[in-house]
Fold these 2 entries.
Entry 1:
Amino acid sequence: MPVIELHELEKSYGSVKALQGLNLQVPKGCLYGLLGPNGAGKTTAIRIICTLLSPDSGKVIVGGVDALSHPRVVRRSLGYVAQEIAIDKILTGRELLQLQGDLYHLATSQTSLRIRELVERLGMQTWIDRRCGSYSGGMRRRLDLASGLLHRPELLVLDEPTVGLDIESRSVIWQLLKELISNGTTILLSSHYLEEIEALAQRMAIIDKGRVIAEGTAEQLKQQLGGDRVTLRVREFSDEKESEMVRTLLNRIEGITQVVINQAQGFSLNLVVDSEQVLPRIQEELNKAQFPIFSLTQSRASLDDVYLQATGKTLMDAELEVASQRDLKLESKKAMR
Amino acid sequence: MENTVDVYAQGIDEQGFILEVLQETLALTRRLYLQLLRRPSTLVAGIIQPLIWLVLFGALFSKAPEGLLPGGMTYGRFLGAGVIVFTAFSGALNAGLPVMFDREFGFLNRLLVAPLRSRSSIVFASVIYITSISLLQSLVIMGTASLLGYGWPGVSGLLVVLLILLILVFAVTALSLGLAFALPGHIELIAVIFVANLPLLFASTALAPISFMPTWLGWLAAINPLTFAIEPIRAAYGGPLDLGITVLHAPYGDVNGYGCLSVLMGLTIGLFFLIRPLMNRKLA
Ligand SMILES: Nc1ncnc2c1ncn2[C@@H]1O[C@H](COP(=O)(O)OP(=O)(O)OP(=O)(O)O)[C@@H](O)[C@H]1O
Ligand SMILES: [Mg+2]
């Protein structure tokens, strides 16, 4: 039985449709990645799973329990590390964790034991008794992770946990997540870092505009794309005219399914080919037409390609597009309770 | 992290409701006290300000002709009751501020994802905190007033004073918490607090008796909840305690101590019922 099941979730903020029929199934004991550009609806979906927000319509089942009618049962078994970090600057990290322990009704001895474990595990010894106001971003994140884990949740939900973190904090967090997985915890992690999802997640869903547009293991997703990727540069820095000419030439070759000119990389050409056998033919044709070849490299499809294929945009473009439309101030205002 | 002890299964199964609510409430209250301890300026200001009122205002009218005030009391003694009530009132009016900041900074979300047994714990914690602080402030004022020679109400009088302050603080705290959930941000909340504070003070019998006021102001003062708290306290300062005697000569008639208490009580209950649906919605 999946740990999280979302059926046809819809959620609008005024006229903005954040979720439009989102379906998701997170199997037990795996690290599941939620990948999508800014504004895709990751945080909205996560807040619904964590019972902080109710959808306009749809079903939310967490750990076999209907989260909309039994939110408290869900809250007990769930640890949440939010995207925006809310801490009490005046308390020390330890005091915050103690508060957290009481909110989850742990016995005092349990709480202190757990705090000791987590402080050690996350390397917080030197600063846990300092006030949170003086923490760096990495410290706050670690404290947040500790507070999400204090009650040993079966399900841990992290919303972009490593954005803007120093390398050390990031590796500490990654390491701990891997360890949790091997101990049977289910983890849902959102990110718009491809590397993070590739490195950690066993399965993933790509979300765009409030919908899942691709789902599966990294291998499956890449296979769905089919074909290999080939990057061709006729010279180190070509120009548009030349690339266009090469494109016309390539389009006539059988076995090449797609040719995209990548302006950002000196007008190199990104091709999708059916099989490796096409490579010699490309060389042949280019030679015949007297084009030089600076480089011709072949690679398997990457997650970025998956995203590109599914949305027609690179992740980067999608983010820039959304960023220009958002009113963050208004959002944080509306997110208030 | 191995051999996970299932902490819930032991503690949580539909028993120990009260214990769990208590645990939550105490933890949240403790947080508020820690904040206060590390940033005591509001508490200190909350004590110094009324002391200044007491000393300066008391001095302002100290040469007023004798017999001007009802019962022939000195102005300092007259003022004492007003300042005590006003201190408790303005302290309680601030009750919503920490909640508002928690809303704005998202700390409230941390509380709302936790499996709180009752979300009223958040409200209880604020009420406990503000009540204890307000009573503490009031006691300091009372002590100082007695040092200044403005009198002391005696033991049973003191109990009445504390009871009245308690009811008033509950009412105002409810109001302030309601505002903290209803208003969009702390700027608005502070504005409301700022605007409510002084007019309510002036349109009450804290600084002058109704007999000094023009009719319209007298009417305002006679329906001002602060007046219903001030007058019985003043009476408690004035002599042996008897809640049955008239303490307020209002334009609409005389009100005795019990009357004042009932009005305050009704107000408190009414306010709690009024803000309940709002809290339920915001904390659902
Ligand atoms: N409180 C809000 N009020 C109004 N619009 C909102 C609010 N929260 C989110 N939105 C909008 O809903 C959409 C989805 O937002 P959401 O925060 O879920 O995206 P996200 O995938 O988490 O993005 P990010 O990567 O930036 O965190 C966006 O278009 C956003 O502008
Ligand atoms: Mg987000």
Entry 2:
Amino acid sequence: MDSKIDKGKFEPEMVVLFCQHCMGKDEDPKAALNKISGLKAEFLIMPCSSKVETSHMVKILADGADGLLVVGCKTDRCRFLTGSTMAEKRVDYARGLLDEIRMGVDRLRMERGEELSCLQMMALVQSQADAVRALGPNPMKGAKKR
Amino acid sequence: MIIGEWKPIEEIVTMLDKHKNVLLVGCATCMAECSAGGEKEVETLAPLLRMAMKVKGRTINIYTKTLERQCEWEFIEELTPIIPKVEAVLSLACGIGVQAIAERFPEVRVYPGVNTTSLAIREEPGLWAVRCEACGDCMLAETFGLCPIARCAKGLLNGPCGGTRNDGKCEVDENVDCVWKLIVERASACGRIEDLMNIRKAKQWSHSSHGGQKRMLREDLRP
Amino acid sequence: MRLRVGTRLENILQEGHFAVTVEVGPPRGANPDVMRKKADLLRGCADAFNVTDNQTAVVRMSSLGGAKILLDEGLEPVMQMTVRDRNRIALQSDLLGAWALGLRNCLCISGDHQKAGAQGKLKGHPGAKNVYDVDSIQLISILKNLGDKAVQEGGDSLDEPAPFFIGAAWTPFAPPEDFRVIRLAKKIKAGADFIQTQAVFDVARFKSSMEKAHKMGLTEKAAILAGIIVPKSAGMLRYMNNNVPGVDVPEDLIKRLKSAKDTQTEAVKITIELIEAVRFIPGVKGVHLQAIEAEEMLPEIIKKAGLLPRPKIA
Ligand code: SF4
Ligand code: SF4
């Protein structure tokens, strides 16, 4: 790891996995992103947050993302009833793994929302990015073979 | 099925310390069923190990492969093209699979990624519990289909010890039913409690691993 | 009636005296004086003295060694033997050795699982490999055959028989409760001569268990000694009620000890009342007293209960 990196200036690359139901119908997070300077995030939409597997989350981080945010529906609003609960359990499990290898648990987090506006979504990403910033860049940066 | 669970990552990382190219092999049978060594787990552990190594300032190249069954020679053959590229194999099979690979490919180091724990059933999603200990002299007929060897912490053959908790759980684990309580209940349900009056003699453990290495030979099946 | 073994305990029971046995825990160390001091303290207070076998799976001086020290001090020991740590080879060999050293009473029990030790203040050896080659009932059968037939479990014969006065434990209240008396019957059928029960606090409940045993004819076939633990504090009673399987302490008793001005005096009183209460339950042939880490309380209790001096035997 390069210790000379100024953590204040480091802008984490985020990946956001979100359930299609937790954002408002006409919201386009990618468009909104461009309006916020500095914030780097890739948005991946899922039919339900429960589709996220531990292996996906670990792989995204192993491929170099600095932080990963999973956004699911509120517990009682999940279209698949227990989908977002299952997602949360998997996120917790994966966080345990990150802890075990001392990668920093806060690189991965789950948030819940309902009919989120772009602005609200960006606030979630921003707050997760702040947590990740404290951890510094992912040592795996650039690992992904393209 | 056979069940097992991942070894602590730290232990795996230490085992692989000297290697640069490693093959991580899963098994799509028991270890997949118990979520310890199927394809999903292989594809989770591989990136996780890459990160774990990186955190320690090292890089490792991990090949992955999940075999149908790691305890059958014909499936193990599928590894032949990959073996020359690696110095070590990390197996997520039960101990049988690990040993089969070690036997087939003596030129590479083979490490277990899983602690094999028992012969069990999936009681509920995410919950497995022991059912058999392969004692070689099955007594389920006398215990109404519940095994006191595997499921009683003391392997008692003549009824419950004095330690059964008030709620019917075992003295050793508050989450596990005292199997003798269950046996008695099932015997009563069949109206056969008197069957449990017989004193069962000391067991002949010679049929189990206590009697030495087990082999099974069937001449009629041999080439 | 002919004596099977001829121990003092057997004599007392056979002559119809109300027997008293007490428990003596060996030290966590090798100093024989600890056992000798306990012997001095308790000499003459009981007919026989149980020496525990690595209770709660915490390593202590062996019951065989401890029992031999008591014997040398003129006390009659009951060597406890669990099946947790020794297979049938070691059990039988130790039995023969014990017999050769003059030990004649043996209590056969399953023993606390080695993980139990880890639950207390001490570390114990939760990582130990246990044995449980035979169970407590099978151990009773082994003793029976060593004595009656002079044969070992595997079928080989002994040069001469090694008869023991055989004891077993009974936990009448643990679930499955209906089966507990059947298990007692199995122990007696296997050869148990005397029975020491788990601690009794709920006398009424114990009485009804005894009635069941009596109806099955078990009280005729073996001598049942009611287990009584000296309640040192209300906290201890509460703990036992909640955590010790098969021990059921009535709430009133806990309250009574809690509100007592002098706990120790009240504890002595309660113990004496319990002794008197179980004494008149048909089939109860004696008491087995335990004062865990408070053995010094026993002489006073036994005296006040009117059980001293212990009868002489012919
Ligand atoms: S009795 Fe033996 S073979 Fe039968 S289930 Fe139990 S351990 Fe397995
Ligand atoms: S409580 Fe039941 S299952 Fe547990 S050791 Fe005792 S008899 Fe066996």
